[in-house]
């Protein structure tokens, strides 16, 4: 490990920076360790390798000081009442809250969502256990072939992004065709299967509320397969030696219909609204829901897929999160998506061309997280 870490050098002086920095070689050296950011942390690096250095403009953290946004603190919280509404008025109030959040923030937190708190804790523990096991065990899963059933890697866009982010990730498509149990690591297999089933159930309920918030029948989004696919990404953010120089995840929006995010209690998530970054403080037992690019596309911009990022981890322990993306991604799915007919009119014509989910996912995979919206590519 020492010789490999030595190849991934800390930031040079200004006078030597251009001459000595062979970025591609250092990216390859990092990638070939197959131990990710956790490997650097375990090796005791005290200076951040140059491949992780973000530009100052990407690290800027503007906050609203004197504007209409001053009264806002963070994304709305919506009580789902255990997914059971005693009367129509309660359901209508919830739908109204979802509509306002989806239109103005693209994000909201849900409480009393029907997923047990014990399962949330076990899922986060499973992510920690996988990442904190012996490197030789993890290496067998390390890959950049995202067609594999289970992929462990660091930075899916390592070779295309302007700076690597301080995080490792393992991912798996959990629906509509769940992996065979033997394709998942034993250390987190059972909880991944259980949590994904619960998330699909919650997602179907959320799509009902979102359908009603659009003025459509409750089953509309489910009937067009918005809840058909589920891709689970489990992120691990070790403590960062120089957190002011990098990010845990750079600015991006999600290429999904919706995302259900399970955070832990270490802060870091920020949502961009009207040019300002808003912190999303962890709320015990809450799940974070956000509109993805595909939902913005089919709602013709009525619901917004907001950009967000994760700050580098300043805590003494690792931060983990589990993002479940409702999308079939690069998997086969012949359905064509465009703005929903009921939502367009002569005064509000379609803003996007018809696409497949696979087209959208392939574009994101090739482009990476470069700070620009993938939706621009699909505008009419």
Q: What is shown here, in short?
A:
The protein is of the alpha+beta class and 380 residues long. It has helices at 2-7, 14-20, 23-33, 36-42, 56-59, 88-104, 117-131, 135-139, 189-213, 220-223, 293-298, 357-367; strands spanning 77-79, 107-111, 150-153, 168-175, 230-237, 247-252, 258-263, 269-273, 276-279, 287-291, 308-311, 319-325, 336-337, 355-356.
The succession of helices and strands, N to C, reads HHHHHEHEHHEEHHEEEEEEHEEEEH
Describe the sheet with the most strands.
Answer: 8 strands, mixed
Average pLDDT over all residues: 92
Report the uncertain regions.
11-19
- Derived structural class: alpha+beta
- The CATH class turns out to be Mainly Beta
Helix tally equals 12
Cα gyration radius (Å): 21 Å
Q: What is the percent of helical residues?
A: 25-40%
* Percent strand: 15-25%
What does this molecule look like?
This protein has 380 residues and is an alpha+beta fold. The chain has a single domain, classed as B-lactam Antibiotic, Isopenicillin N Synthase, Chain (Jelly Rolls). 31% of the residues lie in helices and 18% in strands. It has twelve helices and 14 strands. Strands 1-2-10-7-12-5-4-3 form an eight-stranded mixed β-sheet. α6 crosses α9 (189-213) and α7 packs across α9. The longest helix is centred in the middle third of the chain and has 25 residues, at 189-213. It is globular. Mean pLDDT is 92; it is low at 11-19. Belongs to the iron/ascorbate-dependent oxidoreductase family.
